[in-house]
Write a structure and sequence with these properties.
Elements lengths: L39 E3 L32 E3 L1 E10 L8 H26 L20 E2 L6 E3 L3 E2 L8 H15 L5 E5 L3 H6 L4 E3 L2 E3 L5 E5 L16 E7 L2 E5 L3 E2 H4 L3 E3 L4 E14 L3 E7 L4
Length: about 300
């Protein structure tokens, strides 16, 4: 591309992705079968505590051993696609195919994490209404597939009692409930506006490219800064919501672009072609789904 008015054409400023977001806390299994792109189903392992009994002969009758879990259901997760597009004129400068591919790919990789976090927190795909992606965090109603009984969405269990609590209390309540419900290494989900308050109380520990609580749970910081609670409504100014889940599994394709997927488009309204880069995600979590309303003021 040639710069106008004799200016020298140069490269754009360097970009460093935001740290400690959702993509830093997930597990990404290698799944060679591409059919996962239509969504996944799995049967979770039991998450409850084990049972106990005694070996000596007590006065009372020892009850028979009971199974730790019965009737394990099937859990599902739906796919969604994140994309970026770069418009270009079919005629003129600046439409070299390799340059367009690079720009579309850069646009996707610079912006996809924020979009993925928005979809996973709210279930909402930007510009599309009425079709939430499941599962997502901000939800108070469980959803089961009518034909198979597969659970697509869990209802968040709120651990606060109708009013916002400080960040220390919120983390304590979530981790206490998560320890009872899950007993494993879980994930605490917080909006970016909460990080200063969490740091002020020394509630976060750096672990390489991840943040953790002192108890060891992973912390995902959402740069999308979504604050919706389980009802889908935003709280009052100065408040937010934290969520906690079991471990998160994320699958995503490689980046598909116009040259590889033939997904280029043409906008006849302004005689502009569009180069598209995209990839598909499926995200789900294990067992628990907890929520806490938090005050971010008065730190």
């Amino acid at each position: 591309m040639v710069a106008a008015q004799g200016r020298r054409y140069s490269v754009a400023p360097p970009f460093a992705p935001a740290r400690y977001g959702l993509l830093t806390v997930v597990d990404q299994p290698i799944d060679p079968d591409p059919h996962w792109q239509a969504g996944i189903e799995f049967q979770p392992d039991p998450c409850g505590p084990a049972s106990a009994t005694i070996m000596n002969c007590p006065v009372v009758t020892i009850p028979a051993k009971s199974p730790t879990a019965t009737g394990l259901g099937v859990v599902g997760a739906e796919p969604f696609t994140v994309y970026a597009e770069v418009p270009c004129s079919p005629i003129g400068q600046g439409n070299d195919i390799e340059d367009l591919r690079s720009r579309a790919t850069n646009a996707l990789t610079r912006g996809e994490a924020r979009t993925v976090e928005t979809v996973f927190w709210t279930g909402t795909v930007p510009s599309i209404t009425g079709t939430p992606v499941m599962p997502h965090l901000a939800e108070d109603t469980a959803v089961f597939e009518a034909l198979t009984g597969t659970r697509l969405q869990t209802a968040a269990t709120t651990v606060t009692t109708g009013s916002a609590v400080d960040v220390v209390t919120a983390i304590g309540l979530l981790e206490g409930a998560l320890a009872v419900c899950y007993g494993g290494e879980g994930v605490i989900h917080v909006p970016a506006t909460a990080v200063a308050a969490l740091a002020a109380y020394s509630l976060l520990v750096k672990d390489g490219d991840r943040l953790r609580t002192f108890y060891g749970n992973r912390v995902a910081v959402y740069s999308s800064d979504d604050r919706e609670g389980p009802t889908g409504a935003n709280p009052a100014a100065g408040q937010g919501w934290f969520y906690a889940t079991g471990a998160i599994t994320l699958r995503r394709t490689g980046i598909n672009d116009a040259l590889a997927s033939k997904s280029s488009a043409f906008d006849r309204s302004n005689n502009t072609a569009v180069y598209i880069a995209e990839r598909t995600y499926v995200i789900g979590w294990d067992c628990c789904h907890l929520a806490a309303q938090v005050s971010l003021l008065g730190v």
